[in-house]
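Key result, reporting period 2: structure in, sequence out.
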């Protein structure tokens, strides 16, 4: 079998969902998804000539070929791996279809039939779509009744629409009713900013507000629901230790990205000083990106993003190393059903899997983007993987085209 071409398309969900299609001379087409990045489809087009004429079943060798070809440009990590991750997933899809088996079989078989999904609840109910440099945009699919607040994700904090404990409580009850047994909320939301947005410092008023938000969630659903919280790398170690200690009575599932992810010393300090599991990993690349923080036990829960970390095989290596060190894996995921299901195959084949993120409950066409899978894809807080070969779904191109990003090729 030979690769004939690589095609891309970008769909505007709550993030840009970038699809890679590998087409072969035997008519098999593999589908993968990449985490968004500036210039991503341009990188994918640059990689295409390296793949044409190659046998798509040589997944590890082709990964190595792409790795070597791009390392001279300086990419020992970084957004080239967003592109490579999508390609690698598409190659697994090709091999699975060719052999007539699901991807999880190729990854060593499954530990479980149902993949536990946790719902990302953001900061209450604000519907938001972000472009590839995290600028907020008005989504074409957003309900007209929902007010759109232009807010750059890492821009100046605003107190204009502060999040309230009632918003958090309402969202927790709603998602729990959908069947999710684990929920994640943002702590770095309007109303919790410190007095200076640049110095990573929190004041007591902000800390009290954070505690009131999570307290409302715990009071509403905490008896039978695991609660995780996310800080998006914003704070200094000393202040987030104060927050974490206040949150200890809520027995959190984890505290995510409290400090910048490459600060192993700060993560280690936090992990040693608080009785809340520390999670990180969504913006780390390759096994090497995780090696030291896992070996030093600077974290408790490992959260690679399968559309960015380097692919399914890289994620397996990380998960095996984490397992040796007694740490569960809870993949970060903001993708369409294509990336979510690729991650679900990995989760099925990973013994130390904890829960997989679902970030798109606000996107009305999320389920409609793919065909060949029972809907809704997430049922009662779980995804059940069928025996369908490869990834198990194809893209519904009519739906994808309706929400395609303007100015980007659509599988052309
Ligand atoms: Mg996160």
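The corresponding designed sequence is given below.
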């Amino acid at each position: 079998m030979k690769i004939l071409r690589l095609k891309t398309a970008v769909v505007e969900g709550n993030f840009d969902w970038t699809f890679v299609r590998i087409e072969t001379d035997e008519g098999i087409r593999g589908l993968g998804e990449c985490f968004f990045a500036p210039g991503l489809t341009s990188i994918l087009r640059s990689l295409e000539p390296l793949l044409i004429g190659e046998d798509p079943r040589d997944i590890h060798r082709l990964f190595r070929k792409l790795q070597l070809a791009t390392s001279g440009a300086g990419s020992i990590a970084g957004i080239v791996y967003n592109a490579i991750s999508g390609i690698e997933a598409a190659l697994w899809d090709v091999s699975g279809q060719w052999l007539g088996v699901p991807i999880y079989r190729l990854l060593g078989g499954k530990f479980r039939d149902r993949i536990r999904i946790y719902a990302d609840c953001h900061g209450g109910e604000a519907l938001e779509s972000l472009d590839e440099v995290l600028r907020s945009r008005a989504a074409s699919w957003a309900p007209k009744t929902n007010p759109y607040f232009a807010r750059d994700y890492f821009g100046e904090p605003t107190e204009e629409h502060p999040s309230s404990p009632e918003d958090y409580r309402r969202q927790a009850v709603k998602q729990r009713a959908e069947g999710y047994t684990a929920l994640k909320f943002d702590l770095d939301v309007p109303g919790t900013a410190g007095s200076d947005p640049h110095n990573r410092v929190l004041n007591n008023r902000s800390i009290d507000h954070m505690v009131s938000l999570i307290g409302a969630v715990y009071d509403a659903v905490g008896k039978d629901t695991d609660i995780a919280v996310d800080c998006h790398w914003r704070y200094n170690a000393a202040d987030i230790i104060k927050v974490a200690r206040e949150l200890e009575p809520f027995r959190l599932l984890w505290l995510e990205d409290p400090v910048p992810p490459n600060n192993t010393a700060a993560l280690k300090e936090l992990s040693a000083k608080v009785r809340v599991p520390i999670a990180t990993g969504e913006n780390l690349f390759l096994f090497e990106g995780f090696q030291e923080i896992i070996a030093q036990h600077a974290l408790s829960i490992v959260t690679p993003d399968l559309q960015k970390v380097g692919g399914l095989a890289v994620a397996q290596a990380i998960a095996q190393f984490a397992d040796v060190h007694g740490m569960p894996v809870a993949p970060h995921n903001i993708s369409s059903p294509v990336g979510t299901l690729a991650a679900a195959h990995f989760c099925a084949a990973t013994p130390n899997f904890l829960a997989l993120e679902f970030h798109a409950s606000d996107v009305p066409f999320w389920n409609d983007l793919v065909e060949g899978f029972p809907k809704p894809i997430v049922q009662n807080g779980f995804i059940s993987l069928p025996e369908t070969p490869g990834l198990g779904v194809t893209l519904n191109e009519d739906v994808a085209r309706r929400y395609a990003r303007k100015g980007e090729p659509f599988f052309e």
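The domain at 3-100+398-402 is CATH 3.30.390.10 (Enolase-like; domain 1). The chain has two domains: 3-100+398-402, 114-390. This case is discussed further under Risks and Mitigation.
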